[in-house]
Specification:
The protein is mainly alpha-helical. The protein has one domain. The protein is about 80% helix and about 0% strand. The protein has 3 helices and no strands. Helix 1 runs antiparallel to helix 3.
Length: about 100
Amino acid sequence: MGKDPDLRVNVSLLTESESRLKSLKKEFNNIDTRTDEMRPYWGSSDIADAMNEFVDNWDDYRAKMINSIDTVGKLVKSSIDGFGGLDGDLAKGLQEGKKK
């Protein structure tokens, strides 16, 4: 009984992580491309073309990051649900064991 457990789960940290991932996803989803607004400030057409290419690449990478954030968020949520359910089952078993 004095042996340290093989697995410790910090559900508070998982819950906080899930919340932060949701916030990050929301921020990345709400980033607007302002290419048309900024075009007059870029100067020459060579610079404007390079900036347009950068913005297009950023949009692609941003979409990949949103997908990754969403995937990790689902994994964290599954972990919370799994360990929360397991913890509840163990607590219920202990309570039933005390009644006997």
